[in-house]
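Supplementary Methods S3. Complex input for the S-adenosylmethionine-bound model.
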Amino acid sequence: MSKEIKLRATVRAFILHLDGESFRLIQGDARQIIKYLTGFKFRAIITSPPYYRHRHYGGDNHEIGRERKAEEYLESLTQVFTACKDLLTEDGSLWIIIGDTRRQHEKLRIPHRLADRLVQSGYIFREDIIWYKKNNVSSSARNNFSQAYEYVLFFSKNRRSYTNLDAVRVLGNEAAEGRNKQPPANRIQYLPKNLDRNEIMRISHIIHKASPQTPISKLPTTSEIARAYGYDPENFCPTCYRKFKRHATRRRVGDHRHYPIFAVCNPRGKNPSNVWEIATRAHYGNEHFAIFPEELINIIIRFATKIDDYVLDPFAGRGTTGIVSTSLGRKFLGIDLYKENVDRANSNIIRSYSPQANLKRFSPPWKC
Ligand SMILES: C[S@@+](CC[C@H](N)C(=O)[O-])C[C@H]1O[C@@H](n2cnc3c(N)ncnc32)[C@H](O)[C@@H]1O
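Predicted complex, serialized as structure tokens:
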């Protein structure tokens, strides 16, 4: 049997097994392994490929990131991610955490060029999230700013993809941003109480009928409207932590251009922004990886997948995507070129085992 056929048979056998297990890791070149995964579908592919000319992970000359020219590196990644498209469900998405490379003061625009190539290959470019590393280390360069962020590129296979914004909404975001203090728990009101329909009708009538001649004193205040809608004006909103009496949007009423009208935030929280402020950790123990915080992957998994979905990481490294996927009840397949990384990812995922995640028996990593 030729090497090629043997490899294909091994990967196919592997696929048959994933159904009954929570995760699997395969050792090999992602470009090759992905070809043999045809027919298997993932709801999300979440990965951080080696950055261009940042570090060496071993001595294998199939290692991506060590190409002499940026174009060659981009070609390797395009090859992997274009093949990944066939492995996504029709509503699936691809997430790439990637940084740029600077050469002689020039930024090579690696993330932007990769995004252009993937759009040309048919992906929909949904978002370029900034992962702001709030504890970034100041650089000693004399002419450049310190690099304090990386990109999280979000693509979908089709125009519509599976997303669950409710799973990642932000509560108390204004407190987090230092604008409002966190109120005492017993003063936060989640749901309306004693909503007064007659009062709502009376207030709506006044607002609707208001003319330029209506004096401001005849218009309802935000406190009155809040009370009518069942919110105590002295209580706090669970989403933005503002008092309900200050919880307003501005509207033209009569001739009053900026009249404040009571508004309610979504009680499940606000939409998160596309800047994610997440601290990075230099190393996990003695592992020397470009650290990819679990918190970052956690947001993506909850937003882009459901329980029992399949998640793929073609550059698994220490297995962060696998750790978070399995702990959130998703099934995971990881690929890495090096045996040490596959072994490490395996033990990291096992170590993070939580009984709630219902992690099933694992098999030794497959070598291809
Ligand atoms: C940035 S690291 C991934 C880090 C990972 N996200 C984590 O949480 O640890 C990139 C990984 O890609 C692997 N790699 C490099 N070339 C590869 C290839 N051709 N196929 C598969 N994996 C490769 C490296 O061994 C390295 O572990």
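Residues 29-30, 48-50, 57, 62-64, 289-290, 292, 315, 317-318, 320, 335-338, 341 surround S-adenosylmethionine (CB under 6 Å). Residues 75 and 274 are 27 Å apart (CA to CA).
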